[in-house]
């Protein structure tokens, strides 16, 4: 890489940076958070385009890289924030990210995927959703994807930050093996010990500029630190507290028991910091979550002189979670909003917020932490990982907590910022606020904490104070205790490992098809009740009538499903269906020639494709939100309908209508076609790259882009498919109406959305089924039909539909929020 420069919104992230990586070497890349390391590697792997500079790979120019092209050239990256798709399964994440050549013919996809996971020591089920994995497991999945392509150049961006020691040792072994096979590795880290252990050469960036490149064996840690921070660091850790003989504890935890930990007791005096150590996944995070009021517990937690309940802790404790992206920050809000959200009462002036006070207090706190951001109103997602961590610390300080709980507080943070965070935590403790830190870095706990408890399998196996707090003592206590068998008396019924059958049932209930099963049960129950009151309910005429109505709604709802899977919505499908019927009323009329009929259907198809292209283009290239874009199209399409026909007219050919409504026994042929289309779409959604890309775009757009999904093309073509399926619904609607009526079709917008939501497709995108959508359409038509058979007035249609939607939304949210309560071992 030669002379690479890159700016964001006028702010330089990289300025004239050059980097050379030799075959078969580990090249460490160091720098503070925001120095430009990740930006440089995102350019190297095709995720970003440089503003200036040139790149060559194996001597060949590589100036137009994208993620797919980078993968083809043998470049792979493990991102600091894993490029995983939370709504998709572990297997689907592998399939969407990896080229088909990784999965050889003659070997099942599942066997190949299992081998890839076993290679990195990741023990999870292939059908588990990625959102249910721990942070460490997501990183291991990312590493498995990178190693699967046997890369010529492997970029590792803070790969060990969330990993336990066992996983770190395995990763280092994999890196050494890859290097021995000729792979070059760029290793981004904040841990100098890892540089010494792995790297051959090191490059340091500061403020987006190249500071030095050196052979690791020829440069000292002291000189590296000076290059990284631009100043000398006297000490990483602040002085520890010296307790007086008569000081009373301000924190007493006694017999605390909760999900994932048992009988934890510890105390601390003012000015002391408590550390929680142990192999990752042994109850440390569970303990902190309970003390934050996020999980119930038994026992007592006394701060000062008050014993606090979970509710009180939730309101008054400050919690910094290890996973800052999913739990710590609201990524769509600004830096200021994220920092201020827990301290709004401090900015209140009578009944309103005092913005001047908010800006001053938030600005002072962010400034004291040296947060690097374009402005306080910049999106927090635009910050580097370390600066995002500082924003969480700022929020904790602003909330004036009575207890501070930090889970991996310096994960992904550079040495300079780490020292600042240590100093802040020490100052908070010195002010009389108890501080508890859980960390997988024993050196960190040794240098910072006054008391350390070591946990194994949810139990405290050692408590260290003063000079006894050493890395060796902590590791020995944790490792030597892992062979202990926890008595069944210590394990509550709720903590017993679930059986394979229970795990399978849980996996199904959290899957996409659970809502479909629920809909079938509701339809069977409702049908049985109606039939018990009127035996004509299952007559041929009624079945035919319902299925014809379902055929029109079903096609439109299938199209709506595609829009929702991308994370969008299409409000224009109803008016579009009406417009297509109006267009048909000019061509497909009585005594029309065959040429006219063909032109009519082609005109309907062309209009639907045009509307889909307009919707997709407005969203992806015009930067409209999906609602704004499709609402604009809704109004325009409806207006065109009335321009073409200001009143009903143009009778549809009876022969065409009879052909469309042909029946095979009591079943309309159109419904059979609908079922066939649904099965085909469902298969494509689960088994084809089109389906994986569609769900990937809706699950996490940035991660999808990083794994090589062309988001613009996927979304635009998705909206075209939505409109084409609406064309199928319009054909059915045309046969039912028999006339071009510009006022018809509008109601199908809300009906289609209702059917999709009932079928379990998420309004947030990324997950859903076409089968569920058709069942949702069936249930809607059944409810409409039920009001007739039960003699209810029209009001009951809306009451029943509203009740169904509310029930579906509640049940779906509950099913989606069910997670494994324990943190899984990496």
UniProtKB/TrEMBL annotation:
Keywords: ATP-binding, Cell membrane, Membrane, Nucleotide-binding, Repeat, Transmembrane, Transmembrane helix, Transport
Membrane-spanning segments: 513-531, 543-564, 595-614, 626-644, 664-685, 715-739, 745-764, 771-792, 798-815
CDD domains in the cross-refs: ABC_Carb_Monos_I (cd03216), TM_PBP1_transp_AraH_like (cd06579)
GO molecular function annotation: ATP binding; ATP hydrolysis activity; transmembrane transporter activity
Pfam families the UniProt entry points to: ABC_tran (PF00005), BPD_transp_2 (PF02653)
Domain of life assignment: Bacteria
Membrane topology, record value: Multi-pass membrane protein
Span of domain ABC transporter: 1-232, 246-482
Name of this protein: ATP-binding cassette domain-containing protein
Organism: Agromyces tardus
Lineage, top ranks: Bacteria, Bacillati, Actinomycetota, Actinomycetes, Micrococcales
């Amino acid at each position: 890489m030669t002379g690479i420069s890159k700016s964001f919104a006028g702010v330089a992230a990289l300025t004239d940076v050059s980097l050379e990586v030799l075959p078969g070497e580990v090249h460490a890349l160091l720098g503070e958070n925001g120095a430009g390391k990740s930006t440089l590697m995102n350019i190297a792997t095709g995720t970003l385009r440089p503003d200036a500079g040139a790149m060559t790979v194996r001597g060949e120019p590589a100036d137009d890289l994208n993620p797919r092209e980078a993968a083809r050239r043998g470049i792979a990256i493990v991102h600091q924030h894993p490029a995983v798709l939370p709504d998709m399964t572990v297997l689907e994440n592998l399939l969407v990210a990896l080229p088909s050549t990784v999965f050889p013919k003659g070997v099942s996809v599942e066997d190949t995927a299992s081998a890839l996971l076993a290679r990195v020591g990741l023990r999870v089920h292939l059908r588990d959703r990625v959102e249910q994995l721990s942070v460490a497991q997501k990183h291991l999945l990312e590493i498995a994807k990178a190693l699967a392509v046997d890369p010529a150049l492997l970029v590792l961006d803070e790969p060990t930050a969330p990993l336990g020691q066992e996983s770190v040792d395995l990763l280092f072994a994999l890196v050494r093996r890859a290097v021995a096979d000729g792979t070059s590795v760029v290793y981004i880290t904040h841990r100098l010990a890892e540089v010494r252990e792995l790297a051959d050469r090191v490059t340091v960036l500061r403020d987006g500029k190249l500071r030095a490149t050196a052979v690791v064996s020829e440069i000292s840690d002291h000189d590296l630190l000076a290059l990284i921070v631009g100043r000398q660091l006297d000490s990483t850790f602040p002085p520890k507290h010296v307790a007086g003989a008569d000081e009373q504890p301000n924190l007493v935890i006694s017999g605390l028991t909760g999900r994932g930990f048992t009988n934890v007791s510890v105390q601390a005096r003012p000015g002391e910091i408590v550390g929680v150590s142990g192999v990752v996944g042994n109850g440390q995070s569970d303990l902190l979550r309970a003390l934050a009021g996020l999980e119930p517990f038994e026992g007592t937690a006394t701060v000062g002189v008050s014993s606090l309940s979970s509710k009180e802790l939730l309101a008054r404790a400050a919690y910094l979670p290890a996973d800052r992206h999913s739990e710590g920050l609201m990524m769509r809000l600004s830096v200021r909003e994220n920092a201020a959200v827990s301290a709004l009462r401090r900015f209140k002036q009578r009944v309103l917020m005092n913005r001047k006070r908010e800006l001053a207090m938030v600005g002072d706190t962010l400034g004291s932490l040296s947060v690097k951001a374009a402005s306080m109103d910049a999106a927090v997602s635009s910050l580097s990982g370390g600066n995002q961590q500082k924003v969480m610390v700022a929020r904790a300080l602003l909330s004036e907590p009575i207890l501070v709980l930090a889970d991996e507080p310096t994960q992904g943070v550079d040495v300079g910022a780490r020292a600042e965070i240590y100093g802040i935590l020490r100052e908070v403790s010195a002010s009389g606020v108890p501080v508890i830190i859980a960390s997988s870095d024993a050196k960190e706990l040794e240098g910072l904490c006054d008391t350390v408890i070591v946990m194994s399998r949810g139990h405290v196996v050692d408590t260290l104070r003063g000079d006894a707090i050493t890395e060796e003592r902590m590791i020995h206590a944790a490792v030597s205790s892992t062979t202990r068998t926890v008595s069944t008396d210590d394990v509550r019924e709720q903590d017993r490992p679930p059986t394979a059958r229970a795990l399978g049932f849980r996996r199904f209930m959290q899957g996409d098809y659970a809502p479909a099963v629920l809909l079938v049960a509701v339809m069977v129950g409702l049908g049985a009740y109606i039939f018990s009151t009127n035996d004509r309910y299952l007559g041929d005429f009624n079945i035919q009538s319902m299925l014809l109505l379902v055929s029109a709604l079903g096609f439109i709802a299938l199209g709506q499903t595609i829009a929702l899977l991308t994370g969008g919505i299409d409000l224009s499908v109803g008016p579009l269906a009406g417009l297509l019927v109006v267009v048909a009323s000019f061509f497909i009329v009585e005594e029309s020639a065959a040429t006219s009929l063909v032109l009519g259907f082609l005109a309907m198809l062309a209009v639907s494709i045009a509307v889909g292209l307009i919707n997709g283009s407005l969203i992806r290239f015009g930067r409209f939100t999906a609602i704004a874009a499709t609402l604009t199209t809704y109004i325009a399409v409806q207006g065109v309908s009335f321009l073409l026909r200001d009143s009903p007219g143009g009778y549809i050919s009876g022969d065409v209508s009879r052909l469309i409504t042909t029946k095979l026994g009591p079943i309309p042929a159109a419904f059979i076609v609908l079922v066939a289309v649904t099965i085909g779409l469902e298969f494509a959604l689960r088994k084809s790259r089109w389906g994986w890309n569609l769900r990937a775009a809706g699950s996490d757009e940035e991660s999808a882009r990083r794994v090589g999904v062309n988001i613009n093309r996927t979304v635009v073509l998705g909206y075209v498919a939505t409109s084409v399926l609406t064309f199928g619904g319009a054909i059915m609607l045309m046969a039912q109406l028999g006339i071009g009526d510009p006022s018809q079709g509008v109601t199908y917008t809300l009906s289609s959305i209702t059917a999709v939501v009932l079928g379990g497709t998420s309004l947030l995108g990324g997950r859903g089924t076409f089968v569920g959508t058709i069942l949702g359409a069936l249930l809607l038509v059944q409810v409409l039909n039920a009001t007739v058979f039960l003699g209810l007035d029209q009001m009951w249609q809306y009451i029943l539909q509203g009740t169904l939607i509310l029930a579906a939304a509640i049940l779906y949210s509950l099913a989606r929020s069910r997670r494994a309560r324990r943190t899984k071992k990496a």
